[in-house]
Amino acid sequence: MSPKKPVPPGPVLFIGGVAALLVLAFLWAAGWIGPKRINGGDVTRALEYNTGKKQPGFRRAHAKGICLSGNFAANGAGSEISTAKAFEPGTYPVIGRFSVAGGNPLATDGRNVFHSMALLLKTPDGQQWRMAMDHTPIFPVPSAAGFIALQHATRPDPATGKPDPAKMKALIAEYPSVKAFQDYLAKAVLPSSLANATYYSINAFTMTDSAGRTRFVRWQFEPEAALTGLDKAHLDQLPRDALFQEMIARTAKGPSRWHLILTIANPGDETDNATVAWTGPHRSIDAGVLTVDKVMPEEVGACRDLNFDPTILPSGIGLSDDPLLAARSKVYSSSFQRRAGEGPHPSAIGSDLAGKEPAR
After folding, report:
1. Which residue among 37, 170, 183, 339 sits deepest, i.e. has the most Cβ atoms within 10 Å of its Cβ?
2. What sign for the dihedral angle of Cα 138, 141, 142, 143?
């Protein structure tokens, strides 16, 4: 029997190198090597730190809210830029949630903070489009790291009820977009109703048409109700649940409606930075009308146990290069898992409507 031929060193080294690279890739993906990466739990903990205490069973952000339901009537115009079934002519059921910023479900509505609308739109083919939108067209920070820094710097000092000025100064030095956002909020009209606010996608997304052309798009829901503003000088005089009580009373009289406006990016528009607004003329498409005809406390609504992850999208709509989108998805998941493990909670607003003392 002839002796075995020795294996040339080249292939051995190559195979060993590939194996080493695979091990390194696994370790990097697991977060065991390389720079510390931010995960959803990191951001969720920052939100809890900002609030000062955990509110068991409630969302870590936008803790105060009520459920909504209605429908979206697509007019077909959106099909020009996307193959999503939601843009084909027809009427599709929608459930969602109105909320205000912050992690305290018992916070007053008399604050100059953003109001929010979250939606889940379903089409007959089983696809879902989940949206989480604010009434501001820009976001204060461009990244998850910036959001964590924002939560730490804006935690109210128990002695003054306001953030530490030194920490805010350092934050703005690192993230000038925070000051730009503060200036915007100070000057902008604060909607007097959840029904007369425009709700923005904040991030850019992509939409792909039947010919395979992909465009960057932001969208907003523009209300049919005329915009009127709250008196910012006397916000402290508003009843605690003023916005929600007004929306409940308004909806009892009739539905509220918004037009879905798709705004197509111009060359040069920033698509990876939610702190920057798109300015100047843009092409836009009115894709249909959202009708909200019911609002209800979370105990009896369908929104309480929903995760409104904005990266859950139907075919024809995709993610942009904005890094906040991946971060938002992780945070929504982390927050959902934590509150799901804490058990259901009574809606603070629902408890008030029932004449009961809210859970504390």
Report:
1. 339
2. negative
Cα–Cα–Cα angle for 99, 104, 109, nearest 5°? 55
Residue 90 lies in a domain: yes
Query: Which pTM value belongs to this model?
Result: 0.84
Query: Catalytic site residues?
Result: 62
Q: Check which CATH number belongs to the domain holding 286 and give it.
A: 2.40.180.10
Where does residue 179 rank: exposed (0-12), middle (13-18), buried (19+ CB within 10 A)? middle
Is position 108 within any domain?
yes
DSSP label of 282: -
Query: What average pLDDT does the structure give for the chain?
Result: 85
**Could you give the residue ranges of the DSSP H alpha helices within 254-360?**
323-342, 348-353
C-alpha to C-alpha distance for 301 and 287, rounded to whole angstroms: 27
Q: Which of 116-120, 149-153, 163-167 has the lowest mean pLDDT?
A: 149-153
Say which range, 6-20, 105-119, 301-315, has the weakest mean pLDDT.
6-20
